[in-house]
Amino acid sequence: MNSRIVVIIAVLIATAVGVPAVAATGNLSQGRGLGVGMEVGYPWGGLVSARYWFTPTFGGEGIIFVWGKPGDFTGAFTARLLYKVSDTDTTDFYLATGATGDFSPRGSAPLLFSEVGGIEFSFPFAPNLAINIEFGGAISTRWEISMAGGVGIHFYF
User: Fold this and answer.
1) CA–CA distance from 59 to each of 1, 62, 115, 128, 144 (Å)?
2) Whose CB has fewer CB within 10 Å in the chain, the N or C terminal residue?
3) What are the distances in angstroms from CA 45 to CA 4, 112, 113, 114, 152?
4) Contact 156, 138 (CB under 8 A)
5) How far apart are CA 27 and CA 84, in angstroms?
6) Which residues contact 110 (CB under 8 A, 6 or more apart)?
7) What's the whole-model pTM score?
8) Of residues 117 and 18, which shows the higher confidence score?
9) 122 vs 13: CA distance, rounded Å
10) Structural domains of the chain in order of their starting residue, each with its CATH number
11) What confidence score (pLDDT) does residue 110 get?
């Protein structure tokens, strides 16, 4: 019983201290430009990512994923446009649309077009860091339709 009271008091203190700190920070994504990090997605893969917000509403992103050994490698490159739908202090909602292509020597994979909705979370204790989650759909040049999703982390300069 005593441990429950201690936990409740600790949560109340953390809330009392944390909520004003979050409220006092303002919009954490304001003025963002270049962000680099990782973006992992389905069905196209992904690894190294760079985002650039040209305006507070419009941006672009490039994602590259390469694997294999020299002379026998494969990979994919994704280019997307970003449109910020909602911009709050710590959470932004955006749409991303783009295409993914295979650049392996064999070049056998079809081109993939995707449209996703994303949520990007910013943190008052690390204002340059953002984590995002995305869900949507994709269609290939072979008319194969699939779900699309991803998760990423970016550091903004």
Assistant:
1) 52, 11, 15, 17, 28
2) N
3) 44, 12, 13, 13, 12
4) no
5) 14
6) 102, 140, 141, 142, 144
7) 0.78
8) 117
9) 22
10) 29-156 (2.40.160.20)
11) 85
